[in-house]
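re: that chain from earlier
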Amino acid sequence: MFLRFAAALAATCIALPLWAAEMGDDGLYKEPWMRDTFKDLREDLAEANAEGKRLVLFVEQRGCIYCHQMHEEVFSDAEVSDYIADNFYVVQINLHGDTEVTDFDGESLPEKAAAQKWRVLFTPNIVFLPEEVPEDATATEAAVAVMPGAFGKGTTLDMFTWVAEKRYELDNGEDFQRYHARRIQERADGATD
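^ sequence. v structure.
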């Protein structure tokens, strides 16, 4: 009897993620690597640069089943979570929120107006920023990549890696689709980093 209980308990523990993201008062998931900032994007960019990390904006909304999927199935994976924590400075934006955001162009507006200005229609929407942003650019105009929607672990990790390694720079010759296809093949072949 005890052995069956122990086996069932072990199977349950193995099936569960190591941790589950907390839910904030705003109805959005809160990861330990998300930053609570004043949402002044120039200040956030300076902080990210000072830490040697890349600024990334996570636009999410309460009740989003795809946001739930990303937090519960992808960001709960230690490899993905650790990579993000080590390389990115993450600021969460609420698609329908009222917290003031100061965009790179100096305009201050509620999160929901900023999301509308950036033409964000779906969540999750992950906006990757460069280390330097021109004075008159908006967040989405300056973005080096945008990941609209929910993706699995491999695609998500590949996108974060592609940005961290600056593979978006044209002289590299490998756009994200080619990079991702190569990484899929390498994983299928059993290659490791």
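The longest helix spans residues 2-15.
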